[in-house]
């Protein structure tokens, strides 16, 4: 079975390939489907998705719901982890610490970032996450903690 990252690289080179990859990605983790994520980037130490401002992601005040933003952050982290985790290891989210800083009154760009030193200190790996609205304001930021261990 090809790796998720290999599949992304292959599909993203094709017209509408990122959209196809996004549909496959949402099938693998069905709870992402309700957020209607758009995959922007996937590479080692970086993942990026957009959560659109639409009815299924809105809260009672008409902004992107905090949990929809967190789903986007988790999806971005998953892309990063799939592209970064050594093939003989597996990763599991262990926890998420986030702060809600501003209203998300536009689509939000959810990013996840790490560096080699984060992964060298395993098995606990901190991933920095951030959701940003169209005007550049950070609306959610925090850390997703991964547990990275050798496959048995």
From TrEMBL:
Pfam family, one: DUF4442
Gene3D superfamilies reported for this sequence: Hotdog Thioesterase (3.10.129.10)
Entry-linked InterPro entries: DUF4442 (IPR027961), HotDog_dom_sf (IPR029069)
UniProt protein name: Acyl-coenzyme A thioesterase PaaI-like protein
């Amino acid at each position: 079975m090809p790796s998720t990252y290999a599949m992304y690289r292959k599909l993203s080179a094709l017209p509408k390939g990122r959209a196809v990859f996004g549909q496959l990605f949402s099938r693998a983790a069905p709870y992402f489907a309700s957020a209607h994520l758009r995959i922007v980037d996937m590479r080692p130490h970086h993942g990026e998705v957009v959560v659109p401002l639409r009815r299924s992601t809105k809260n009672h005040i008409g902004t992107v719901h905090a949990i929809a933003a967190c789903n986007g952050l988790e999806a971005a982290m998953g892309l990063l982890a799939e592209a970064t985790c050594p093939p003989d290891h597996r990763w599991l989210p262990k926890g998420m610490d986030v702060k809600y800083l501003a209203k998300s009154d536009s689509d939000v760009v959810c990013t996840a970032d790490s560096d080699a030193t984060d992964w060298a200190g395993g098995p606990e790996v901190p991933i920095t996450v951030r959701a940003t609205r169209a005007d550049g304001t950070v609306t959610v930021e925090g850390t997703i903690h991964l547990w990275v261990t050798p496959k048995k």
